[in-house]
Design a protein that fits this description.
Blueprint lengths: L1 H4 L5 E6 L5 H9 L4 E5 L4 H13 L6 H4 L2 E6 L16
GO biological process, one term: methylation
InterPro entries: CaM-Lys-N-MeTrfase, SAM-dependent_MTases_sf
GO molecular function: calmodulin-lysine N-methyltransferase activity
């Protein structure tokens, strides 16, 4: 169902912490339908704050729970996607 939400060539951005690898488990599943790219260096301000928290509050700041990574899901163009699929055409 999520696959149908993006048109061919469309992208979705997901920001979430790794949560003890569930982020990466989701990425593996998503690779069956989408091109998946993961980026931890998507914004210098977020990255600077991340390193500051690691240094200054290591007993409170948990990277797995607090640092959001960015996942980009891209729906590729295919020969079968040359026409738009609408709810009426299904």
């Amino acid at each position: 169902m999520f696959f149908d939400l993006l048109k061919p060539g469309g992208e979705a951005l997901i920001f979430a912490p790794s949560r003890n690898k569930t982020f990466h488990q989701f990425a593996e599943m998503a690779q069956e339908l989408f091109e998946v790219k993961i980026d931890q260096n998507y914004d210098s301000r977020v990255l600077d704050l991340h390193f500051k928290m690691l240094k200054e509050m290591p007993d409170i700041y948990n990277e797995s729970l607090h640092f959001p990574m960015m996942m980009r899901l891209s729906k590729q163009h295919t020969a079968s996607s040359s026409r738009e699929v609408t709810p009426e055409s299904r």
